Amino acid sequence: MHTQKFPEPRTGETETAGPLSSAEVLKRLGRRSIVLVGMPGAGKSSVGRRLAKRLGLTFVDADEEIERAACMSIPEIFARHGEAEFREGEKRVVARLLQSGPCVLATGGGAFMNAETRAAVARHGVSVWLRADLNTLLRRVKKRTDRPLLAQGDPAQKLAALHAQRADTYALADVTVDSRDVVHELVVEEVIGAVHAHLLARLVAHPEGIAMAPLSSATAISAEAESLPLGEITRSTVRVDVAGKPYDIYIGPGLLAEAGTHVTALRKGARVAIVTDENVVAAGHLATVAASLDAAGIAHTAIVVPPGEKTKGWPGLEQVVEGLIAARIERRDLVLALGGGVVGDLAGFAASVLRRGVDVVQAPTTLLSQVDSSVGGKTGINSPQGKNLIGAFHQPVLVLADTAALNTLPVREVKAGYAEVVKYGLLGDRDLFDTLERDWPGVIGGGPERITAVAASCMAKAAIVARDEKETGDRALLNLGHTFGHALEAGAGYSQRLLHGEGVAIGMALAFAFSAKLGLCPGQDVTRVVRHLEAVGLPTKISDVPGELPDTDGLMDLIAQDKKVSRGALTFILVRGIGEAFIAKDVNPQEVRAFLAEMR
Ligand SMILES: NC(=O)c1ccc[n+]([C@@H]2O[C@H](COP(=O)([O-])OP(=O)(O)OC[C@H]3O[C@@H](n4cnc5c(N)ncnc54)[C@H](O)[C@@H]3O)[C@@H](O)[C@H]2O)c1
Description:
By secondary structure, the chain is α/β, with parallel strands linked by helices. The chain has 3 domains: about 20-210, P-loop containing nucleotide triphosphate hydrolases (Rossmann fold, 3-Layer(aba) Sandwich), CATH 3.40.50.300; about 235-410, Rossmann fold, CATH 3.40.50; about 455-600, Dehydroquinate synthase-like - alpha domain (Dehydroquinate synthase-like, alpha domain), CATH 1.20.1090. The chain contains 23 helices and 22 strands. The strands form 6 sheets. Strands 11-12-19-16-15-13-14 form a 7-stranded mixed sheet, sandwiched between helices. The longest helix has 26 residues, at about 75-100. It is globular. The structure holds nicotinamide-adenine-dinucleotide. The site of nicotinamide-adenine-dinucleotide has 32 residues, from α11, α14, α15, β18 and α16. Nicotinamide-adenine-dinucleotide binds near residues 308 and 501.
C-alpha cells in the first residue's frame, strides 16, 4: 500500500517534498485565501491556526477582526446594534480581509449565509466547509460563552435549528472536510488534500471554448482516521452532483476490502450481484469483495464474464442479464460492477435494463475505469457496426475506486488508463498537464500522486457531468482524441493490438496535429503533448499500431460510423493549445481525409 505521510510542520526554511508540500499548495493557491466556513464549534479557529502554520500563511479570525474594528465583543455588538448591523459589518470585514492576499481566514458561523460574501469568497478564495455532526458541535460549544445566537433558550434546540437552516448553504463551499474528534493535524492534512485536489481540477468549460474558473461543486475529502495509522492520508471523496441523484466516488487503497461496510451504509438488506471478469477474479479481487460482503452478512452472487472488449456485445449482455435474473436480483438489490471499463459498461447497462432499472455500484479496477468510465453514467455495449452504439445513461449510486487494486494491473493497462488522465489536462487544465509532466512516474508507479491524479480526474469529469449529464453540450469535450481513437480501435478489431487508452493517446496526438494543421494550435504544443505521451511509453502515431489497419478510406468509413457524426458533418474536439479544447461541429471530411493520408 502506498501512503502519504504527514509532512513536517513548516519551520523557518524547512520545506516538505511531495505533491502536497506547502510550496505546491501555495503555488496553486496564488493570491487566493483558504476560507473556513461552518457552524460554531466546527473547529474553524483551531484547525485554521494549525493550517496557517503548516502552510506558512497568516491566520485571521474574522470575528476577532470585527471585535477589534468595533472595539467591543460580539455579544456586545449583538446587544447594542442587533444582528442585522453585525452582519453588515461582518460582510465588509470579510471582503477587506479577502482583498489583502493569501491567508487562512476563519469566518463566523453566519458569514457564508450572505450571498455577497459567498461571491467575494468565490472570487478571492477557496471555501472549505468544516462539517461536524450535531452532537460533536454541541459538546464543543457548551464550553464557550461567546455565541450570542446560542445564548438564549435551549442551546441544543437552537443549534439543531441553525444547523438545519444553514447546512445546504455550507454545502455550496468548494470543498467539504469532516471535522471529527481526531487530532487537529489530521483534519489539517485533509483540508490541504481537499484544497489541492480542488485547485488541480478547477475547470469550467464553455461550449465555444473553455476557460479556467473555480469549481462550485461540493467536494469532500476525508481521511479514514479509524482504520489507518495516524499520519497517513490516503483517501479522497469526490461528489458527482447530477440532478436528483448525486453520488460519491471514494478513492484510495483498501476500499474493496470495505465493500460490505459501504454497501450496508448505502442499502441495508440489499443483495448484491457482483459482475466481474476472469482476470479480475484471478487477481484476487472477487475474493476480497466476497469476504467483505460475507463479513457484513450480505447475500451475494457472482457473474464472471470473459475479459476483453469482445465481451461488451449482445452475447455478453445476455449472459449478464440472464445471470441477474437467475440470481433473482430485484429492484431494491444492487449490481456491483467489479472490473475495468468493459465490465463497468456491460454491468451498468445490464442493470439499467433489468426490471427497468436496478441500481449499480461501480468498483473500477483499472486506472481508465477509475478516472473515466465508472463516473458519469454512460453504460452500453458495442455493435458490430461500431463502439458503444447501444446503451443508456445509468448513473451509479456509489463508486469505490480502490487505487491499490491497480497494483495487479499489467503496466501496459495502467499506461493506457493514464492517457485519460492526460486528457483532462489537455482539454481544460494546463496546470494539471504541467503537474503530470513532472509527476507521471508516481501516477503510473503507484505513489501518492496516483490518488491525487485519480481525484483530480474525477473532479474534472464530475464538474462536466454535473453541467451536462446527457451530452447535449460541453460533455462532448470528454471525447478529445476519441474520434480518431475509436476508428483505430475498430480498425484493429478491438484487440490487444490497441487498447482503448492507447487509441485515445494516438487520437489526442492526432487531434493536436490536426488542430495545428488548421492553424488553430501552436506547433510547440503538439510537440509537448507527443513528447509527454512518448515519455510515458504510449503510442502517438497510426504506424505505432502493430499489424494491418484499414486504408485511409476505410478509416474514414469508421469515423463516419462513429456516433459523433451528424448528417454528414463531422464533429471533432479540436484545440487552441494545451488546456483549450473546444467542440467543432462543421469539420470538413475532405480535410480530415487529407490529414489522415499524410499521417499514415
Ligand atoms: N462509460 C464510459 O464513460 C467510458 C469511458 C471510457 C472508456 N469506456 C470503455 O471502457 C472500456 C475500456 O476499459 P478498460 O481499459 O478498463 O478495459 P478492460 O475492462 O478491458 O480492462 C483491461 C484489462 O485489465 C484486466 N483487469 C481489470 N482490472 C484488473 C486488475 N485490477 N488486475 C488485473 N487485471 C485487471 C481486464 O480483465 C482486462 O483484461 C472500453 O470498452 C471503453 O469503451 C467507457
